[in-house]
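Quick check before the chapter quiz. The format below is the same one you will see on the exam, so make sure you can read both the input and the output lines.
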Amino acid sequence: MRRKRVLLVSLLFLILAVGTFYYVVSNFLLLPRVDAIPPGAYIIPWMTPNPSLDTISKIPPPLLPWNLDAVMTGALKLDVTFRLQVSNQTRVVPSTVYLGHDADYLYVGASFSGMGPNPYSSPGVGCPNYFDIKLDVANKGVLTFPEAGSFMEVCVSVPGPGPPPDGWNTRFWWAYFDEVWQDYVPGVGHGGWNMANEVGMPVNTIGEGAAEYDNTTGTLVILFSRHLSKSGYYADSLQMKPGERWVMGFELELGFANPNDGQNGYPVYDDIVDGWPLNTYPYWSNDCSWWPKLVIDLTNPPKTIPGQTTPGLNL
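Here is the expected output.
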């Protein structure tokens, strides 16, 4: 009887020791996360923009002097058609989204053919067009705080008949925001995406960004870089380490912001939006199990990254 009791106590102690060891390793030693790549996943290639994003961002708008295909050589290209319901017509926007990464950044570029200005805009008053990429960072198929989103908006004013600043040429600006998923958003009354700085993460994870707009064709082009890790952010808001490979669900959105969203009698989430692969805006559900998967793999960096230039050259 005594031997059985000792054996039972020893077994319980072993279980406790193994559990404690696993907890310490998982939570304090932080073993690298290396996910298995599922069939059909979109593997994001290693690349970096050429010329650099810093160079591109200094090219003045509204001309289109840089070619996104050339800048994002080697990137994954997704051909998507967004459909934006504007008044009594549908604005069809053939688009190409470019995704690439290096050791530090996820690069996101896109060209939206014939998107045109926001229909809420008027001469001298520009309301933003915007593009979103949202990530199920934990890859659980259910959105839980914080996850990760990147949101770039571009203001394209409607040119007026007179001289600048309200006429002839389009006034142009862009801004970038980080997003997180909240299980409950005050003022909305349910789960949804919110700006990261609203929930205690004030540091933007953007590196550089650029945008151009062609007045003649109504084509909007954007490009930005998001840090793969950044101090001050929660672990599940995209915080990769060297040697890791993450598989994440992702979703894309294109839209026109409603300047009266949630004000003056307009309902909250009253933007004009379409999504890929499905339009689920405004996210009444946190079910993202149907999102396609993307892969960022930092386990085996190439010796030469496509797009990199010789150090010291100002290209």
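If your answer matched, good. Residues 18-28, 310-315 have pLDDT under 50 and may be disordered.
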